[in-house]
Fold:
Amino acid sequence: MTTALPPGYRIDPEGTHPAYDFAGYRSTALRHPSRPLRLLPQRLTELTGPLFGEDRLQPGDDDLTRANGGEAVGQRIVVHGRVLDGDGRPVPNTLVEVWQANAGGRYRHVVDQWPSPLDPHFDGTGRTVTDGDGHYAFTTIRPGAYPWGNHHNAWRPAHIHFSLFGQAFTQRLITQMYFPDDPLFFQDPIFTSVPDEKARARMVSSYDHEVTSDHWALGFRFDVVLRGREQTPFESGPHDA
Amino acid sequence: MPELDLGSTPSQTIGPFLHMVLPWADGPDVVPDGAPGAIRVVGRLTDGAGDPVPDGLIETWQADPDGRFAHPDDPRGPAQPGFRGFGRCPTDAAGEFWFRTVKPGRLPAEDGRTEAPHLDVSVFARGLLNRLVTRLYFPDEPDANAADPLLATLDEDDRRLLVARQEADGTLRFDIRLQGESETPFFLL
Structure:
């Protein structure tokens, strides 16, 4: 039986993603594979993937500023952007899941116990779906920085966690969105674990005055780029197209 | 090469607070309760010291029992109506995860070859800056496993580590060891 497979997805250049073993981030020490990764040629399982859209949404999932009958404290912001592949093609109708700390840098999570108050009107979780042009948007408050135990006086730069499916198992991405000109970048091993500075910059949102809304909210733009496709279908070897 | 290459957004760790939004009530239900042929897959995620990883997230993706995917890029046509193919389960305090699923069919590969039934598995955790990818194969498919083009690239120890173990009650166990003795084979995708 011969079945032509659709084109595969390009492997990103070295330096785009962090190494698994990154000494500056102590928790990688016992959690990185000690053996080299084997090549997984992209076949049907890797070239397809779950396609979740509106079916996973509840009303209000794209507004994190209202919870438990009140409004969250903090700088109200609109975060928006497009989900694209490496060739600039939009990824339409794809689920985007986000989570973040509150304005004081505290997560609503049992393991976060540092002395910064929880906000009864902020849960810090959201979901949205890209439109036909790959565009998404949600309203939230700007998260605070927070301390962690990785090294002395370690602080995570303010960030929003993003989880994206794309259109194939191969495109699955979990990342973090940062804010422009954060003075904490230099000492953060999670941000600096990305070797290539240009790739690092792709995790930093930009202030967007076009989306800033008078007397309401500041706008930030964050485009997410998932792996682009090879130009021709695989015939034999997976990565020699 | 493409005319435009934007460069991918880098991966970052899922961090310790993944439970705020990512676990879904129906996450482990690749198929609904009572689905014909349903099987239970369980496993434990452990680190290089053998300790459980209690802040991980495991995801699976697979074909239906006929080997079809719920996806338009499957050139052979659609999966069974309503088949989701995706599972997601956070690890618990003991590092354990579980899924309710069905065994997928075999899949056509290049050069007339056939892939054995398998699940693609993603591992996310605090301390993992990038996801890890592995595969689960089925213990009752020795002939198909022997002909599988991916398993054929591995040595015998690694092949064995990718085949789930059947327990007395029919449950399949697939433990994932991030590092050290019996380290799970992980793949560059």
Summary: Helices of chain A lie at 44-47, 197-201. The first strand of chain A starts at residue 38 and ends at 39. Confidence is low (pLDDT under 50) at residues 234-241 of chain A. Chain A has two helices and 14 strands.
